[in-house]
C-alpha cells in the first residue's frame, strides 16, 4: 500500500531520535503480523467472539423510499463492543502488543471514546493502562472517564496548553519516551508517524471487506457511492478500502462543517479552504493552522471529528481525486439524526450523522436501482447530553436538575 510510510507527499515518520528503536521494533512486529495469516485469523476470531463481527449491513428501506432515489444501506459499526469502529483498531493493536511482549499501553483521548476502547482492550488482555486526557475534556466527558477508571485504567488530566486533545498527545509522547521498553502507544486513528496510519487502516479494513461481500449479496452489485465521516479518518479508510480498486464506486468523506465553512468554527481540512500543508505530531498532512504553524481551534458538535489534522492516506487520495470531500454543518447533522431515528429506529453517533447528511443530499439524484452505503461508525447513546440539549427538551432538563439536586443534598 505504501513505501516508507509516504502516500504521495504526505505521511512520513518525524519522530524524536530516542523513539527510533521503538518504532523499528513496532515496524518489525507489524510487518511480521501482516505476513502471518494466522495473525489475521486470530484477529477475526477475537472480533467475532468479543465484538459482534461481522457487523450487519442494513437496508434502510424507509429512508430510501423517503428520498425516492438510491437504495440506502447502512454498515452497522455501531454494533461493535463499546459502540463504534474504534474496537477494530484497539483490539488489533492489543494482539500486536501481546506479540511484542509489552505489559503496558498508553493512549491519548479527546472525547474519551478511544480511551474507553483502549481501557476495554487493556482489561481484556491484562495490560496496565494509562490514558492522557486534557483537563477540560476530563470535565466535559465524565461518563467516559468514569468507565475508563472502572475498567482499571489510570486517567491523567493534562493541565498544559489548552488542556485538550493536542496537549494530551504531547503528554502521551513524553510518557512513551520514558517507558519505551515495556509500553506501547495505542494510536486512535489513521494519523501520526508511520507505521500507525498503515497499521490502523489495516485493522479497519475489516469494515470494507465485509461491506463489499454484503452489498454484493444483498444488492447484487457494487454500490454507486460510499459515504463516511472523517475525523482522523479511520472509519472512512476502513470502509473505503473495500472499494478502492473499483473506479466506478465513488468514495465520499464528510468532515465537520460546524457553524459553517466561512465562520472559522469547523474542522473541515479537505472540504474547506482553511487548511494548509504542514508537519506536526510526527507526520505531514493538511492541517488547520495559522501562518506560523500554530494549530487553530476547531469546532464541531461531534467531539470525535474535532481534530486539526487528517489521515495522510486520505489527503493523498483526495489529491489524486479518488476520494471526494464534503462538510456537514452542526444544524444539518441534528436534522439528519432526527430523520434517521424516526424513519429507521437507528441512533447514529453525531460523528456518523455527518455521513448521513451528505448521503441524504445526494440520494434524490440517484436511480432507484443504485445502491449507496453509509458507514455508521458508532451509536449515538453517548451523545444524549448534547442531543437532549439541542432539542431543548424540558423533561430532560427537569431530570438533570433533579439528579443534580439529589447529589447536592
Ligand atoms: C472517534 C470516532 C470517529 C472519528 O474517528 P475516525 O478516525 O475519523 O473514524 C467517528 N465516529 C465515531 C462514532 C467515533 O467514535
Q: Could you describe the largest sheet, including whether it forms a barrel?
A: 6 strands, mixed
Quaternary status? single chain
Tally of alpha and pi helices: 15
Mean of residue pLDDT?
Answer: 96
Strand percentage, roughly?
15-25%
Rg for CA atoms: 20 Å
- Overall geometry: globular
What's the total count of β strands?
14
Give the uncertain stretches in residue-range form.
Answer: none
CATH class of the largest domain: Alpha Beta
Termini separation comes to: 59 Å
Element-by-element helix/strand order? EEHHEHEHEHEHHEHEHEHEEEHEHHEHH
- CATH topology assignment of the largest domain: Rossmann fold
Q: Indicate the percent of residues in helices.
A: 40-55%
* Helix and strand composition category: alpha/beta
Strand order of the largest sheet: 3-4-14-9-10-13
From the 3D coordinates, which CATH architecture of the largest domain would you assign?
3-Layer(aba) Sandwich
Number of domains: 2
Ligand roster: pyridoxal-5'-phosphate
Features:
409 residues, alpha/beta, Rossmann fold, 2 domains, six-stranded mixed beta sheet, four-stranded parallel beta sheet, 15 helices, 14 strands, 45% helix, 17% strand, globular, binds pyridoxal-5'-phosphate
Provide a short characterization of the protein structure:
The chain is an alpha/beta fold and 409 residues long. 45% of the residues lie in helices and 17% in strands. Pyridoxal-5'-phosphate binds next to helix 10 and helix 13.
